[in-house]
Amino acid sequence: MRYRLKPTEKFKSDFRRLKMEHPEMIPELKEAFQELIDEGTLPSGYVPHVLGNRGGLYNGRMDAHIWEGRVDVVLVYQPHASQPSILLLRCGTHGELFQGGFHER
């Protein structure tokens, strides 16, 4: 079964910014997208896990890490419970997404 990826507007904005600031990450991120399309999940090398920090904005969503060199990009996504689709919520460095480093431009 193939899964459909549905990026949010925020994800699209994050991805555009990531392409400019960390273009070296794009091939690895696209490989992760292909895994999600083909399998609906990511292999353990991406360390996929459910977010559950106290008071966290993305609790219950999935988080995975895409590494390339020294940059650790976090992909936040939500598989649909009954449909073959995956909502892409955010992507960026850990600091940008979870420590307030991302500022609206």
Describe the protein in words:
This protein has 105 residues and is an alpha+beta fold. The protein has three helices and five strands. It has a single domain, classed as YaeB-like fold (2-Layer Sandwich). A hairpin with a 2-residue loop joins strand 3 and strand 4. The chain is globular. Pfam families: YafQ_toxin. It comes from Bifidobacterium simiarum. InterPro entries: RelE/ParE_toxin_dom_sf, Toxin_YafQ-like.
Give a topology summary.
Layout: E1 4-7, H1 9-21, H2 26-39, E2 49-50, E3 62-68, E4 71-79, E5 85-93, H3 94-98
Parallel strand pairs: 1-5
Antiparallel strand pairs: 2-3, 3-4, 4-5
Which fold does the CATH topology refer to?
A: YaeB-like fold
- Helical residue percent? 25-40%
Walk across the major sheet and give the strand order.
1-5-4-3-2
H/I helix tally: 3
How much β-strand is present in the residues?
A: 25-35%
Largest sheet: 5 strands, mixed
* Text of the CATH class: Alpha Beta
Number of domains: 1
Give Rg in angstroms: 13 Å
CATH level-4 homologous superfamily: RelE-like
Structural class: alpha+beta
Order of helices and strands: EHHEEEEH
The N- to C-terminal Cα distance equals: 38 Å
How many extended strands? 5
- Average pLDDT across residues? 89
Regions with little confidence, pLDDT below 50 for 5+ residues: none
CATH hierarchy: architecture: 2-Layer Sandwich
Shape assignment: globular
